[in-house]
């Protein structure tokens, strides 16, 4: 028992004894009359009334403390017991008062307007007392059981994995204090684990991009299972950099940092445009995009950014960049074992990208993309490009290719626009084995744009075919 409760109990006992002694003076001051009651309290009676009020208040406080220290079932029983006793006594007195014949009983009968001949009023008073009893009983149970509703809401929220930063509060008696303490421990454990999971997910995103989770329909690494896979249409991009390791004056460490400096330029741009890096491969980076227009925009941004970096590093050799783009079905999945799960992309685009890069290098182009990528672009997407022919991928397969010259210097792109019709006509004639006519068209294109290496390549091949 708490010290404060002990003090209240002592004060209650000290006030109860004189209250019982002075009770007879209070009763004597209540005088029954034919019209009801009149009150004539002397000094002792007034003191008795004051002590009765103090005793009642202290008794109520102690009773509430007692109720709050009990489990819910006992609390409901002990708190309802006085109401039941009072209800039973009230009904008994109401039923028997008409049989009594003394001044007090007669005054009560006058106030209540009941008599042996008027049972109707007696029944009405009985109904009223019953309604008041039911209401008080309901209110008592409602107050004592209110914390249970809070527990239900908190448990439901915790069951759904929702935690709160502030302390959970239930209220109620001693039993609920114990439950509140346990729920706060659970909430704190959930919060700690939730923070740990957030930290793990943030660290995981450095190795497994969040876009990869989206492709698999997952939200965190904990949800990844071996064998998880999904087949989707995506645009794969191969960025190749040449000239990074051509400076012999650099040490291995300097060269490593130099390579990383360009990766630090490219990687944020890939993430910015909604893509994610599948793999780093020497001087190349393979990235995957859900939307082809994002892949094209990203390739433009990469080329412009590297050109700016080249101008900033005038003391070092220029780094040439090439971007190859293809759109097709790829499989996003999880491979490995339970101890080490690895995300991977399975498709046949990697060898095709390498072939595109070889052609890209031969033509000194910046961006080459396939017809599948062109077909995946929105109708309102505008940029500068031209048809550059077909590339055999398998024995019976080939891809149609285009060159994007949106990011070339203005003077060169203007010349390519003017020579585009001659060049594309020459490529079609070359594919149709009309080499002489193809040479004429390539020659006309070169007169407009002498720096078009791709056109020179086709022109020389046409000449070779004619000579053979």
Note the quaternary state here.
Answer: single chain
Distance between the termini: 112 Å
Strand percent estimate = 15-25%
Main β sheet profile: 8 strands, mixed
Please explain how this structure is put together:
By secondary structure, the protein is an alpha+beta fold. Helix content is 60%, strand content 17%. Among the domains are: 3-159, no CATH class; 210-378, Alpha-Beta Plaits (2-Layer Sandwich), CATH 3.30.70.1230. The chain contains 14 helices and ten strands. Strand 6 (320-337) and strand 7 (340-346) form a beta hairpin. Helix 1 packs antiparallel against helix 2 (43-68), helix 3 (72-96) packs antiparallel against helix 5 (119-159) and helix 8 (252-272) packs antiparallel against helix 9 (292-312). The longest helix has 41 residues, at 119-159. The radius of gyration is 46 Å and the shape is rod-shaped. The chain starts with a helix and ends with a helix. The mean pLDDT is 81.
Write the SSE topology.
Blueprint: H1 3-28, E1 30-33, E2 36-39, H2 43-68, H3 72-96, H4 103-112, H5 119-159, H6 174-204, H7 210-216, E3 229-242, H8 252-272, E4 276-281, E5 284-289, H9 292-312, E6 320-337, E7 340-346, H10 349-363, E8 367-370, H11 371-375, E9 385-392, E10 398-404, H12 410-431, H13 435-448, H14 453-467
Parallel strand pairs: 6-8
Antiparallel strand pairs: 1-2, 3-5, 3-6, 4-5, 6-7, 8-10, 9-10
Helix pairs in contact: 1-2, 2-3, 3-5, 5-6, 8-9, 12-13, 13-14
